[in-house]
Amino acid sequence: MQGDRVQRVFIIVLILNLAVALAKAAFGLLAGSVSMVADALHSGFDSFSNIVGIIALYLAGKPPDPEHPYGHGKIETLGTLVIGAMLLLTSAGILFEGYRRLVNPVTPAITPVTVAVMVGTLIINIAVSTYERRRGEEYRSQILIADSLHTRSDVFVSTAVIGGFLAVRLGFPQADPIIAFAIGLLIARMGVGILYDAAEVLTDAMNLPCDPALIRAVVTDTPGVAGYHDFRCRGKPGEIFADIHITVDPALPVAGAHAISDEVERRLKEMVPGLAEVVVHIEPDDSP
After folding, report:
1. Beta bridge partners of 42
2. Model pTM?
3. Beta strands per DSSP E along the chain
4. Could you give the CA distance from residue 46 to residue 120 in angstroms, rounded to a whole number?
5. pLDDT by residue for the chain (288 residues), tens digit each?
6. Which fold has domain 2-202?
């Protein structure tokens, strides 16, 4: 099943993210670098988001039941809300620590080992985020794609930390807490973005990849369809629910009109990526 494949990706990414976070935290504490420890927290939160993703996907994969006739797919979106909220909390902690270090400066010890750790974890982050994004696009998984963007932000954060190391070596120790501030703001921005995207899905915003030109081509190309209107869709990528009104010859018998609606439904599900269900309403064509 697709959900199982996505969960396997999360487990692989979880292991790699834990290794990266532990390496950054250990050497960041030894060096006394707040920006490196902040980056480790960010990487550690990647691990937490992986766990949230695994749990959310497990629950979202449950079949429909009488209380949830549309299935449990939105639990995946609820998981992204949890990730966004935790990102904001992490951001607040990093900003506070950056402020504390700015008021009471401590010059971190920059060694070839700490730089090597950052460069090594940077390479791992690039590989992990690329792998996760490609699998997310292949499986059309909302939470996997969002998590890949989260991991990709580590690439920019780690690059900033390495730049801070260079600034400290050049005699600007204030750069370390300032970069921690930048990391905190970056995480906050990312958290707000994740919350916004999740809210769009939960409020049934029609911002999904339902190409109007494709809908028009599929529907109007179906024999017996005179026209259509009021196409609407909601849900998330990979699990879209839609409804549409089509017009047919008013002289058609009920069975004939129903056969046309069945054909429209079949063609839309076949041609529109991620369309899980579509309700086709039949109306008589009243055009001249």
Report:
1. none
2. 0.70
3. 227-236, 239-248, 275-284
4. 17
5. 566 778 788 888 888 888 878 887 887 777 676 666 766 776 776 777 788 888 888 888 888 888 888 788 888 888 888 878 877 887 787 788 778 777 776 666 666 776 777 788 788 888 888 888 888 888 777 788 777 877 777 777 777 777 777 777 777 767 767 877 887 888 788 889 888 888 888 887 766 567 888 999 999 999 999 999 999 988 877 788 899 999 999 999 999 999 999 999 999 999 988 888 999 999 998 866
6. Alpha-lytic protease prodomain-like (1.20.1510)
Residue at token pair 């089509």: 246
Residue 277 DSSP SS3: strand
Residue type, 239: E
CA distance 262 to 110: 68
CATH topology identical between 2-202 and 212-284 = no
Question: Rounded to an integer, what distance in angstroms lies between the CA atom of residue 25 and that of residue 45?
Answer: 12
Q: 279 vs 18, 84, 214, 246, 262, CA distance in Å?
A: 45, 33, 17, 11, 10
Looking up tokens 């396997």, which residue turns up?
8
* Topology of the domain covering 212-284: Alpha-Beta Plaits (3.30.70)
How far is residue 220's CA from residue 264's CA, in Å, rounded to a whole number? 9
Give dist(CA 242, CA 235) in Å, integer: 9
Q: Using an 8 Å Cβ cutoff, are 150 and 190 in contact?
A: yes
Residue 104, judged by CB atoms within 10 A of its CB (0-12, 13-18, 19+), counts as exposed
Segments making up each domain of the chain, as ranges: 2-202, 212-284
The span from the CA of 10 to the CA of 148, in Å, is 10
Q: Which two tokens stand for residue 33?
A: 């670098």
